[in-house]
């Protein structure tokens, strides 16, 4: 086939450049038109690198009346009067500092750029006063109401969530900055605010009476990201090029993309049918590289999420399958009693199911890329050991298991756990369970942990080409007890007809040595 495809907008977040540069683009302008003409003020929460900044830039181009950029797109069909409005746009993600004074200086510079255009009253001293003055002068000078776009409003706050004094100072500063939104309501045509979380104590939410949160409305599931329908109808040449490079069928390429990048659901759906959304950043990178990789997770480490999990004492192995009601999604991080809302808002958990009778949502990892990336990032957090050390251990364990050498595999795991510093918390049964959950889960797609059976669940099942390992571990007990549980609960029964070798593996940890004390493997006859 002809392998010359369209350009992929890697690192490109401006609508103008995408349109003029013949870049890959999935038309979202129908949403832009609807939102701009249906609401006064809108808040949208989506994970990082999900297309929020491009959406904000598209809104800016729309309100600036740049009709030529929309030729052939849905908005051009819908819009009859292309009016040019004054647009004030603030990209909070461009502020990299966590120092409140440096954040204030950055905001001052942003406002200063608009003061160069619309002027400044020297009596306006605070950030809020200055923004209010710019809005008033822009309205007076142009004769048009002002459009206010705030991208990643919570970027600075997320960086200091666990530093309470700095967090409170930044929060108060931003409350002052956002204050004019309500004061200037009569002069504002439209306001659009994006972010990851919803900090309830900011005036941006408490003072705007008609702010509409569209984050979980079924009509806007596909506003950011690429839906399954869009993938299959607009990305056929890209999928085929990927399939050719991977030497697999078109359908296999779709399956690989789905397994790794699909699975996001941002609402309960219509009549219980949820819209499948792919991570656009990973999808475009996969098309560009013509390879399956961990693109989204590798682009940023969720350090603040690990802090949230420690703060709320969340057990990693228990976060999948947890449930929330609708109110639980809107809880602010500073008042939340669990890490679930921020894990969802950040894109590390998503909606897996919705019960129409109880109104309860079930959460889980959206896909393989996110789950594996998150677990790999979490392993150094619970072991206090370098990430490379964990990676090396996993490689050796996988090699040993596929060579049918369970003793070498467990020796490597034992050495890794034994290296955890004595002052670190790894001497309780939950701590051992978390570390083993991480290690076993990260071994690969043929490893299943916490596997349910008719009368219980075993700790892990690993299937290789030649062997099925049925694994059970105990703390401060004995390997015999582990093996006895496998027998008593009949964990091996589903594999009795399997022609592969079957091994029961009992493992015992001790809190005294703080690692694996002993293990024993017995072949199932």
Q: What's this, in brief?
A:
By secondary structure, the protein is of the alpha/beta class.
Give a description of the structure:
The protein is an alpha/beta fold and 525 residues long. Helices cover 43% and strands 17% of the residues. It is built from 23 helices and 15 strands. It has a 5-stranded parallel beta sheet, with helices on both faces. The protein has a 5-stranded mixed beta sheet with strand order 11-12-13-14-15, sandwiched between helices. β11 and β12 form a beta hairpin. The protein starts with 14 loop residues before the first helix and ends with a strand. 39% of the residues are buried. The mean pLDDT is 89.
Question: What is the average of the pLDDT values?
Answer: 89
Shape: elongated
Most strands sheet: 5 strands, parallel
Question: Level of helix content?
Answer: 40-55%
Structural class estimated from helices and strands = alpha/beta
How many H/I helical runs? 23
> Within the largest sheet, what's the order of strands?
2-3-4-1-5
Distance between the termini: 53 Å
Strand content: 15-25%
**Contiguous uncertain segments of 5+ residues:** none
Query: How many β-strand runs?
Result: 15
> What gyration radius follows from the Cα positions, in whole Å?
26 Å
